[in-house]
Amino acid sequence: MDIILSNANPDPIYEQIAQQMRAQIVSGILKEGELLPSIRSLAKELRISVITTKRAYDELEREGYIQTIAAKGSYVATRSHEQLKEEYLRKIEEHMRSIHLLAQFIGLSEEELGMMYQLLREGES
């Protein structure tokens, strides 16, 4: 499993792990039912505390992305792709509401917002 941690990232380490694992599950890189590395082995691989890794796994389990079976390990939970997509669409809508309010506050037009989005996408290429 590819997880890249950054001290420059303002998010806590456990959240960086959880975000990247969520993305890999949603994109299908990690498949439903797939066995995940143990908390200890992932902590060792990433050179971080077992407590930090456990916190990431606990968060993912609470959100329904993974399930843990005692003495067997943690697995990618069985969720439909549509459920995951719907969850992400809700998050996008929340962010768009915030962007809309901020843009209104400073008088930014839809055209200017569109240009900002295009520049953002071009910068990622």
TrEMBL record:
Keywords: DNA-binding, Transcription, Transcription regulation. InterPro entries: Tscrpt_reg_HTH_GntR, WH-like_DNA-bd_sf, WH_DNA-bd_sf. Gene3D superfamilies: Winged helix-like DNA-binding domain superfamily/Winged helix DNA-binding domain. The keyword Disulfide bond does not apply. Residues 11-79 form the HTH gntR-type domain. It holds the Pfam family GntR. CDD domains: WHTH_GntR (cd07377). This is Transcriptional regulator, GntR family. The lineage of its organism: Bacteria, Pseudomonadati, Spirochaetota, Spirochaetia, Spirochaetales.
